[in-house]
Fold each of these.
Amino acid sequence: ERKLMESPAEQQVIEIYAKRAKEYEKKLADVAQALETDRAYLKYRVKALMDLRASSEDIEAARRELALLPKTTAAAQELWTRAKEESLSRAKPLAGMPPHVQAFAGQPEGSAQEQDQFTSSRNNFIALVFCLMLGTVGLPHLLTRFYTTPSISEARTSVAWSLLFIGLLYMAAPALAVLVKWEVMSQLVGQDITALPAWMAQWSRVDGSLISFADVNGDSRLQFSELKLGADILMLATPEIAGLPYVVSGLVAAGGLAAALSTADGLLLTIGNALSHDLAYQGRTDSNYPMKRVMLSKFALLVVALIAAYFAAQKSTGILNLVTASFSFAAAAFVPALIAGCCWPRATRAGALAGMWVGMGVTCFYIAINMPWVRQYWSLEGSGLWWGIQPVSAGVFGVALGTLALLAVSWLTPNPIERTEPDGQYT
C-alpha cells in the first residue's frame, strides 16, 4: 500500500481524477448552460469529423457520445453529481480505501475533526457488533432449529459446535480479504492494459458496475486507482484472481445461492407457522384442525413471500442495510424477554410484553426518524443521530430501553405463581 501511494503513476491518476471532480463541480454550478455547451460541442465535433472524412469508428464514437448525453437538466445534475462523487473518491490515496492496518476511520491523535471521526467510527463498529451478536440470539428461524435436539444438554452441545464453525468462518473471511488484496495489488496492478487476465473482460461484460478499468493517464499500465471492483464481485472472482478455473467460481456462486435460499426458506416457514398459530389456534381440539392449520400456514407463507418479493423488486435501499436492520429488530424485540424468561424468575408476562413493545418501538422510531424523506417531510434540521450511532445499529437503544421497561413493569406487576423450569419441574 505504501509503494502504491508513493508511485508517480498512481499520483498522476489521482491528479487527473481531482481535475475531473473540479470540472464536474463547474458544470454543476450552471447545469443548463453546461449541458447546452456540451451538446453544441459534440454536434460540432460530429459535423467536423464528417467534413474531414474521418474514419467510421471515430464518427460513430462521437455520435455515441452525443447520444449518451443527458436529455434533461435533472438527469444531467444527477449524472454529474454521481460522477463528481466518484471522481473525488478516486482522487484519494488507494482510491479512497483506508489502509489495511487502520481499523477505524480518522486518527486518534490527529486533528479535532479526525479524532471525532475516529470516535464515531469506533462507536459505530462496537454498536454494530453488539446488534449482530444479540440479533443472532433472537432470530426466530434460528431458534426453531433447536427444536430438532431431543434434550437440553444436546441443545447446548449444538451451540458449542455452531460457535466452532462460525469462528472458523469469521477467521477465514479476513484472511481471504488479505489474500485477495495482495493478489490484486502485487500481481494485477502494473500489468500492461492489453495483457490483463481474461476474467476481467468476462465479468465486465456481465455487468459494467461489477468491474471496470480505464487507462486514465495513458501509460498503458493498470494503476490501482484506475481499477474499480464492486463488492459483489470479489467473492465470485476470487477463484479466478487466484488462477483457479472458472468452474470454481460457479461452485462459489451455487453455494452462496443455496445459503440464501435456505435462509429465505427458514424465514418464510417460521413466519407462516407463527401466523397460522397466532391467528387461527384458539385451543382447538377438533380432528380437522391440523389439516386446516397446515393449509393456513402455506397460504400465509405464499402471501408473505409475495409481499417480500414486491418490496425487494422496488430496490429502495441496499440489501446490506436491510439485513443489518433486521438484526437490530430481532435484538430489541426478543432478546431482553428471552434472557429474562430463562434467567430471572421475577419476570412477568406483562414485563416481557412491555420490553418487546418498547424495544421494537424505539428501534423503529430511530430508524424512521433518520430516513432522509422523513426528515424532509417533517422539515427536521440537523442530525437525528444519538451519539453519532447510525440507524442500522438502532438495536443498541432498543435493547437498553426495552430491558429497562421489562424490569420496571415486572417489578410493578404481581409475581408469577407458577414457573416452568428447564428440567420440567414446577416451583
Amino acid sequence: MAYLSKKAFADSQGWAPSYVSKLGKQGRLVLAPDGKSVDVDATLAMIGKTADPSKEGVAQRHERARVQRDVYGANNLAAPDMPASPEQGMAPPGGVGFGDFQAARAMRETYLALAAKAEFERLCGETVQRRPVEDAAFRAARLLRDTVLGLPKQIASDLASMSDPWEIDRFLTERLRLVLTDTTRLGNDELKKAMAAGAD
C-alpha cells in the first residue's frame, strides 16, 4: 500500500489539488488510518468503479432519451411521465453513495430491455393492464353470486306446487342452466370490455 499526501497524490496523477479535494467531498477518496494521507491503490480502485457524479444529470437525460427512442419511438407512442433528474451532487436514493458503475449500467440495460419487452407484449395483445381485468372479474363473480342467491325467490312458488321429484329435478336444472348461461354471457362481455380497456 502506498500512502501520499493529498498534494503529492494530485501531482502523481497529474491532477489539480482542487480535484483531489472534490473527490474527498464526494466520498471517493480513501484515506490512510491517520486520516491525512491518501491510500493511492484504494482511491484509484474507488475512482475506477464509480461514475463521475457531475455527469449524472447528463446520463439520466440520455437514458430518458434512449428509452423514448428505443422503447416508445419505434412504435410512435408517448412515453409515460418520468421523474425529473435529481440535483447534481445529490446522493442516490437509499443513501448508499456512489455504487459500482458497471453494475449500475448492467442494471439499467436489463430494465431497458424489460421495458421494451413489456411494451412489445402489450402491442401484440399478449398482456393487458391488471386492474381493469381484476375489476371485471370481481363484477362477474358478484353478478353470479347475486343471481344465484336471487333464484330461490323466483322459483319458490313454482316449486311449492310440484310433488314429483323428477319434475322438480328437471325444473331446477333448467332454471340453474338458464341463470348460469345468462351470467356467463354477461361476464364474458364485461371481461372483453375490460381487456380492451386494459390493452389501451
Amino acid sequence: MKFNLIKWKLMLTTLPITLVILLIKFGIVYGLHYDGLVKFSEVGIVVTGGIFLIGFMLAGTIADYKESEKIPAEMACTIETIEDTIGLGHGLKGGYDLTMVRRQLNEVTESIINWFEHKSTEDEVFTKISSISDIALTMENAGVGQITSRVSNEQHNLRKLFTRATVIEKTSFLAPGYALLEVLTFVIICLLLVAKFENETTAIIIISFISQIFIYMIRLIRDEDDPFEYTKSGKAIEADIDLNPLMQYDQRAKSRFRKEEEVIRSFKLRITSSSFLNRKS
C-alpha cells in the first residue's frame, strides 16, 4: 500500500513542537528542580474551554471547505459542457473552425489551473472567461444561434464558480477567534509545564497528547481556511482541495486536440498524395 505523505504531513510536522514542549517540561523538573504549581486536575476546565473553541472554529471553516471541494469538479463539468455545445453546433451547421474554437476554450481551463497554482492573476482568468463570449459570437455568426444561449449560461456558471473560489481564497474565518484560540492554547501549554503529575510516565503521555492535539488542530483549521494553497506544480499542500477533476478534463481536451490534428494531417496527406498522382498520370 502506498504511503500518503500529504495525509500525515501536518501530524508529522507538529511532532517536533510537541517534543520541544516535553523537553522544556523535563528542564523545569530536573534542571530547575521545580515540581509544579497546580495539580493537573485543576487545569481540566481550561482544557475543556479550549476544546470547545476548537470545535467552534472547526465547524466554521468546514462549511467553506466542503463547498470548496465541489468547485474544481463543477468547473470541469461546466467547461466540458461548453465544449460539447461547441461540437454540437459544428455538427449541426459547421461554419467555423472546431479545433480553433476548442483551443480558445482550453485557454480558459489553463488560466484557471494557473490561478490555482499561483501562476496567473485573478484579472487574467476573468478576461479569459469573458472571451467565451467570442466563442458564442462565432457560433451565432455560423447560424447556430438556437444553442448559443447554452454557452452563455455555462459562461455565467463558470464565472460564478470562479468568483466564489476567489472569495474563499481571500477571506479568513473570524480572525478574533483565531487570536483567542492561540492565546488559550499558549495558556494551556504553560499550565501543563507548571502542573504536578503523579509520575513521569503520566506527565509524558498527557503533555504530549494535549500539546499535539491543540497545536495540530490550530494548524489544521488554518489550513482548511485556505483550501487553495497549491504549489506551482499543482500539488496539494496538506488539507488543500484536490484539483484532479479540472486537470483530468484538461488532459482529455488536449487528447482530443491531438486526435483531431492527426485526422486533419492524415486527410491533408491523402489530398497531397492524390494530387501528386493525378499530375503524374
